[in-house]
Amino acid sequence: MNKAQDFVKAWFLENYDSEGYPEQPGEEHYEAKTMASQCVKAAEAAGISECDLKAELGDIEAHIRAEIERAVGRA
Tens of pLDDT along 63-74? Predict the structure, then answer.
């Protein structure tokens, strides 16, 4: 794994609570968007730029959404 991937994985495990997972279709996209924004801010505070995140992960929101789906067993 790369630095950005390691950071996002650790950040996600620390910040995601699957008990609050949205029940309504489409809400997971809002949650992923919100979490992606928070993750980017945390990464930047840790010295990892948004450009570095995108270079390693591609679409950060899609990556977070996939992590959410794995966490709740929907992937």
Answer: 998 988 888 776
pLDDT in tens, 6-45: 999 999 999 987 665 555 556 667 788 999 999 999 999 9
**Euclidean distance between CA atoms 41 and 72, whole angstroms:** 24
Query: If we measure between CA atoms, which residue out of 74, 64, 57 comes closest to residue 13?
Result: 64
Alpha carbon distance 42, 70 (integer Å): 22
| This prediction's pTM | 0.82
Q: How far is residue 66's CA from residue 2's CA, in Å, rounded to a whole number? A: 18
DSSP-derived 3-state class of residue 72: coil
Q: Can you list the alpha helix ranges (DSSP code H) found in the chain?
A: 3-15, 27-45, 50-57, 60-71
